[in-house]
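Field log, afternoon session.

UNIT: design team B
ACTIVITY: writing a sequence onto a fixed backbone
BACKBONE:
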């Protein structure tokens, strides 16, 4: 009778809340451990490799679009995870989901050192020798300079001619990964006056690693 009496007693709300909190903390710790493996691989330039465990679903978003995912059971929209948050309850037609968000490193920047005066500008490939651009950790390459490094800007006709001459004489001014991108990737150029021939020559030099790409300019 004593055992039945105690088993039938209602559980205090505080006890329920404490148990839920402990269970949630445990699950989030396991989630962080699995996410840490994914983040480490992505930040090292390795391929997307979600854990084998199906206990959690992982999604990789970039530039407001879904890039990779580990499960089709529930796929959140880019808009639903766009805001800044750590934990968020996502409501869907087939249930509610608790989402946690991790931010990858920001895009790296590289400035084309097309003249000797720019040798003081540190290359990301010298600072991080093992870095390889990926969708998760992209590279922003400033071919014709960056505003905050005024001497890197290619503005005048003389600048362009010097740029072309140096690019032709020193192919390594373009990192290998950038040469590969120019040779094998489609580009959309905005506000470029192609008819002058200067930019066309510049692009052909950049794409010289792939004859078909260069001849199609």
């Amino acid at each position: 009778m004593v055992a039945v009496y105690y088993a039938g007693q209602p559980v205090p709300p505080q006890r329920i809340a404490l148990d839920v909190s402990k269970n949630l903390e445990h699950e989030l710790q396991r989630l962080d451990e699995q996410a840490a493996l994914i983040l480490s691989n992505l930040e090292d330039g390795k391929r997307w490799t979600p854990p084998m465990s199906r206990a959690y679903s992982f999604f990789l978003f970039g530039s407001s679009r879904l890039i990779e995912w580990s499960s089709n059971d529930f796929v959140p929209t880019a808009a639903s995870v766009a805001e800044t948050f750590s934990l968020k309850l996502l409501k869907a037609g087939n249930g509610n989901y608790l989402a946690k968000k991790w931010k990858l490193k920001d895009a790296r920047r590289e400035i084309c050192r097309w003249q000797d005066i720019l040798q003081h500008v540190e290359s990301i490939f010298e600072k991080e020798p093992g870095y390889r651009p990926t969708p998760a950790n992209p590279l922003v390459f400033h071919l014709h300079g960056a505003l905050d490094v005024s001497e890197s800007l290619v503005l005048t006709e003389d600048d362009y001619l010097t740029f072309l001459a140096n690019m032709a004489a020193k192919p390594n001014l373009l990192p290998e990964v950038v040469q590969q991108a120019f040779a094998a990737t489609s580009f959309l150029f905005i506000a470029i006056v192609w008819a002058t021939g200067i930019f066309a020559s510049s692009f052909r030099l950049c794409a010289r690693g792939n004859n078909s790409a260069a001849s199609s300019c």
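LOG NOTE: Residues 108-215 form one domain.
NEXT ACTIVITY: expression trials, pending approval
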